[in-house]
Design goal:
By secondary structure, the protein is α+β, with helices and mostly antiparallel strands. The protein has seven helices and 16 strands.
Length: about 350
């Protein structure tokens, strides 16, 4: 009997060890495979992926149907300079609140963000009672500046706007970064080394900020505008853009899976550049309560592809800009049309 218990104990210890080994192996694999596509893609990410496919297919259409043109040298994606697109910060007292440094601005923003993610309200979704964030926002995605070999093409410009609405459908969300409209589910599973990250608080730091400013609206509110520093292939909560916006995450691995796509030279890291830069967000805060009354975020993403081979078409370049916006509060119409949500 004792012998049987000994074997059972040994078996249990072996199972525990196996689980530990599996967990460690999983962590190491995630670190090695930076461009893994096993993690779930967001809806925005999926939309981008489909638009990217459209762009590559359009390359073939242009070559096949367009007359020869003088080639235009594509812009070097590495030549971009990250510069402020908003007014610089001026120390002072705004709405009765003293801001002496960028740290003060960011700390106040982080405090307001956390407080507002504690505020909930009653809704109905498809007739069922729900408790979501009090401040829900909309989302919209636009594609601009579609270029193949540095040139615009009327056919492509007409193609994408007609397809995008059927691919991307915005839904209500909490203040970005946010993965949900329901506070109890507003976490991400794709943090550093596979960690889970709560989106109930902002992880933004002063080091993440390229520029910021504060405006006194003279009505008991102030408006804080923040422009985060540039990030390449931004990941949620892992870089300046990812700690401020609802970034697209890792899409390069998805692109790698396109069977008709290859590169005439270099690697996907060198030829597929996803640059987040230039976007900013503004929140308007009631300084007495620290409640955010309105907010607008614009995330700007530039995708640049070099030396792409698409089927029989060789060594082509392509680029596009993505403008992703969130406005708070979302209108009753948006809530109703997007997810059949109504405020009580």
């Amino acid at each position: 009997m004792a012998k049987g218990k000994g074997k059972e104990k040994e078996k249990k210890e072996k199972v525990k060890l196996t689980k530990a080994e599996k967990k460690q192996a999983k962590k190491e694999k995630k670190q090695r495979d930076k461009y893994s596509v096993k993690s779930k893609l967001s809806k925005t990410n999926k939309a981008l992926f489909i638009v990217f496919i459209i762009l590559l297919v359009a390359t073939i259409v242009i070559v096949a149907l367009s007359s020869a043109k003088v080639p235009v040298k594509p812009t070097d994606p590495n030549s971009y300079v990250d510069e402020p697109s908003i007014e610089e910060f001026t120390p002072g007292t705004y709405g009765g609140v003293a801001f002496n440094s960028v740290d003060d601005v960011v700390n106040y923003y982080v405090e307001c963000f956390a407080y507002n993610k504690t505020l909930t309200a009653d809704y109905t979704e498809n007739g069922e009672a729900k408790k979501y964030y009090k401040l829900l926002g909309d989302e919209n995605l636009e594609i601009e500046n579609l270029l193949v070999e540095g040139q615009k093409n009327a056919m492509i410009d007409k193609l994408v706007p007609s397809i995008l609405p059927s691919v991307f459908k915005g839904s209500p969300k909490g203040l970005p970064p946010a993965d949900n409209r329901d506070p109890q589910y507003d976490t991400r599973d794709d943090g550093p080394n596979g960690t889970q990250i709560s989106q109930l608080e902002s992880h933004l730091t002063a080091d993440d900020v390229l520029a910021c400013n504060v405006v006194d609206n003279k009505d008991g509110t102030i408006s804080i505008t923040i422009q985060p520093k540039m990030s390449i292939l931004s990941m949620p909560d892992q870089d300046p853009q990812g700690r401020f916006f609802n970034v697209l995450g890792d899409i390069s691995g998805t692109v790698e899976k396109i069977s008709v796509l290859s590169f005439s030279q270099g690697t996907i890291d060198e030829n597929f550049v996803v640059r987040y830069a230039g976007g900013s967000g503004t929140i308007t805060v009631n300084t007495k309560t620290k409640e955010i009354t309105t907010a607008d975020f614009e995330m700007d993403v530039h995708i640049d592809v070099q030396h792409a081979n698409v089927s029989v078409i060789k060594d082509k370049s392509a680029s596009l800009d993505i403008i992703y916006t969130n406005h708070f509060p979302a209108s009753d119409e948006f809530l109703k049309n997007s997810r059949n949500i109504e405020r009580k």
